[in-house]
Amino acid sequence: MRILLVLTRKKGEGLVIGKDIVVKIFEVSGDRVKIGIEAPKATKILRLELYEDVSVENKKAADVTKDIIDELFLNKKSL
Amino acid sequence: MKIETRIGTLNLKEEKIINFSGGILGLEQYKKYLLLDHPGTDIIKWLQSVENPNMALPVTNPYYFYPHYNPKIPQQVLSQLDLKSLADAVMLNVVTVPREPKKATINLKAPIVINPVQRKADQVIVEYPEYQIREPLNLLYSTDNRRCESC
Q1: Cβ neighbours of residue A37 under 8 Å, at least 6 residues apart?
Q2: Do the Cβ atoms of B57 and A73 come within 8 Å?
Q3: Is it the case that residue B141 has pLDDT exceeding 90?
Q4: Where are the alpha helices (DSSP H) in chain B?
Q5: What is the ipTM, given to two decimal places?
Q6: How many Cα atoms within 13 Å fall on the side-chain side of residue A57?
Q7: B1 with B39: CB under 8 angstroms?
Q8: B101 and A74 in contact by Cβ < 8 A?
Q9: Which of B7, B41, B142 sits opposite A74 (nearest CB)?
Q10: What is the pLDDT of residues B103-132, one digit of tens each?
């Protein structure tokens, strides 16, 4: 099960996630927040919109059929 | 053991399995893949999930289409895959074909980097230089036609 925790932090404050991830708020200006994340090197940290965009593209690619690839690449040989 | 794949029933050879310990983005539940040649063409291969027969992604060698492709792969990604340098890696990029096949695209933003010896792989998002998730797949570049155009 997953939970969504919403809380308010000020500049200079932070959060601890699990046993080895620390998130700090470095700067707040207007609608932008500068965040520092301290995590083990192997932790994958991605911008959410980029993660979502690549995820959607991967899922679309998984819908490509063998026939479509045949149509696109095998016909080329006869050119 | 026989398994179903996008290109038919195959004999699964365990030693051919490529392990994605973090999974492919958005499809993290699948960790084990085979790399299969699409019959009749050298251009397209399938990253076929061993765990789900319906889960297969068409991939290609990006240099067929973008000979100057040069993404900066972070050192920590290489070391996680036990690669000394990018030269030891195999790079493949996911191909998406919409309803109109001529509008096929290649994801240059998120290459799949494989250690072919240890059979470990990961999908990496590259920041530099700037590449797009949907770059046109110019089919002309992938055929022998290119050579003829210059004769």
Answers
A1: A21, A22, A23, A24, A45
A2: no
A3: no
A4: 62-65, 75-80, 145-149
A5: 0.89
A6: 26
A7: no
A8: no
A9: B41
A10: 999 999 999 999 999 999 999 999 888 999
